[in-house]
């Protein structure tokens, strides 16, 4: 069910396609309504950010600052576009990224208990997935008869973070001290803009190749919790230490896709 919900931005325009006749009547449009479906690969490059983590538990009133620098990865994309009139299109897109890992974690846990200090933890400490959904209004400056169709667009974006977890080496380090930890990230609403080009195979061909650069504004909350590995009594607070901080993800995404045009 969770996976199905992720595809809701894709299913919506497909439903719109089958109801295009009613939409055309409602908007006062005449003639066939054009649609484009594009599917392909995506190269995702997130931002490096200095994150200030603060002590959520107020036990030690501690805070620290560390670099979060996820590596780049490849994913896949799909988008559906409706062109009700010449020069303008409405696009809903979905980009499914692969797992990010990385970050200089020096001082990531400067204080967990009064006796245990993780000031020398370095390297990749966590992994996470990021999926980006977008809704954009696009402008095509050239006539529809041109075989090369550049465009620009902008709109809103939604970024969902999942599969958040510490890497195995750090989990092992915590286990040596009888501890376990959690690493969680939230979601983000933001804006997006893009620029791209459709290369049509021919004036009468329905097939095209697309290249596009997409930027999405994405700021999310990172939360780190450290727990006793042995479950405590019911009336005892299990958290030893908890930190949170705002991370600016802000990915650049570069699409290479194959598209198909059709009309109703």
Structure commentary:
The structure is a single chain. The chain starts with a helix and ends with a strand. By secondary structure, the chain is mainly β. Strand 6 and strand 7 form a beta hairpin. The radius of gyration is 23 Å and the shape is elongated. It has one domain: Porin (Beta Barrel), CATH 2.40.160. It has helices at 2-6, 8-18, 20-27, 168-176, and strands spanning 34-45, 49-55, 63-68, 73-85, 88-101, 126-139, 148-166, 179-185, 187-200, 207-216, 219-228, 239-248, 252-263. The strands form two sheets. The chain has an eight-stranded antiparallel barrel with strand order 1-4-5-6-7-9-10-13. It contains four helices and 13 strands. 12% of the residues lie in helices and 56% in strands. Residues 1-24 form the signal peptide. Keywords: Signal. This is OmpW family outer membrane protein. Pfam families: OmpW. It comes from Microbulbifer pacificus.
Summary keywords:
264 residues; elongated; single chain; Porin; mainly beta; five-stranded antiparallel sheet; 13 strands; eight-stranded antiparallel β-barrel; 4 helices; 12% helix
Number of strands: 13
Query: Which CATH architecture is right?
Result: Beta Barrel
Low-pLDDT windows of residues: 13-28, 106-122
Which term fits the overall shape?
Answer: elongated
Range of helix content = 10-25%
* SSE sequence, one letter per element: HHHEEEEEEEHEEEEEE
Count of structural domains: 1
How much β-strand is present in the residues?
Answer: over 45%
- Largest β sheet strand count, sense and barrel closure: 8 strands, antiparallel, barrel
The CATH topology corresponds to: Porin
Give the N-terminus to C-terminus distance in angstroms.
31 Å
Keywords: Signal
Protein name: OmpW family outer membrane protein
GO biological process, one term: transmembrane transport
InterPro entries: OMP/PagP_B-barrel (IPR011250), OMPW (IPR005618)
């Amino acid at each position: 069910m969770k996976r199905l919900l992720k595809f809701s931005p894709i299913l919506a325009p497909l439903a719109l396609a089958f109801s295009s006749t009613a939409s055309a009547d409602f908007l006062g449009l005449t003639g066939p309504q054009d649609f484009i479906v594009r599917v392909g690969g995506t190269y995702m490059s997130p931002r490096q950010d200095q994150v200030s983590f603060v002590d959520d538990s107020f036990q030690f009133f501690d805070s620290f600052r560390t670099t979060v620098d996820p590596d780049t990865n490849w994913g896949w994309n799909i988008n559906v576009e409706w062109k009700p009139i010449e020069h303008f299109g409405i696009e809903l897109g979905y980009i499914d990224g692969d797992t990010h890992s990385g970050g200089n974690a020096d001082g990531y846990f400067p204080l967990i208990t009064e006796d245990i200090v993780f000031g020398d933890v370095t390297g990749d400490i966590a992994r996470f997935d990021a999926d980006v959904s977008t809704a954009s209004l696009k402008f095509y400056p050239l006539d529809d008869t041109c075989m090369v169709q550049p465009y620009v667009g902008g709109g809103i974006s939604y970024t969902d973070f999942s599969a958040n977890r510490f890497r195995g080496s750090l989990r092992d380090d915590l286990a040596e001290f009888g501890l376990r930890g959690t690493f969680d990230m939230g979601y983000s609403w933001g804006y997006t803009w893009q620029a791209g080009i459709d290369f049509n195979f021919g004036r009468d061909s329905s097939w095209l190749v697309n290249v596009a650069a997409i930027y999405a504004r994405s700021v999310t909350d990172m939360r780190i919790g450290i727990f006793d590995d042995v479950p405590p009594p019911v009336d005892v607070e299990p958290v030893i230490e908890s930190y949170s901080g705002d991370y600016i993800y802000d990915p650049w995404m570069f699409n290479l896709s194959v598209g198909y045009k059709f009309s109703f």
